[in-house]
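Input chain follows. Return structure tokens only.
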Amino acid sequence: NVTTAELGLEPDPKAPIHAVIMETGDQGTVSTFVCLRDGTVSLYFSTGGGVIGGGQHGSVRGACFEMLSITNKYASEFIAACERVSTFALPGDGEVFFYLIASDGVYQAQCREDALAEQRVPFSALFNNWHAVMSEMRQIEESR
């Protein structure tokens, strides 16, 4: 339920979506991916741990900005495919929940991972971009 003001983000009429959060369920665990308009990129695991500070690396930050660019380019279509929420259940196995943080609230879309992978739902573009961000994060982690 964080607000854009709490994130330190000012409203931007050209970019109504300030953050994309994606949660995936797999074998009873949940991974939470966060991409903010200020370039912050983080990944958290329900089993503990995660990766923070990914946005400090240009390639990761760029991939985050690309995700937000796609989201804002088609903001009205993405928001129309969502429902406004104020409670946040966890995804089950094979489910992917997208949260779009906008100035006027939080919007959620619930998708099946197989439908996203097969390009059968509008959120497939964000799912594909998430893979690009994760690939950049993995390369950074492996180079350490």
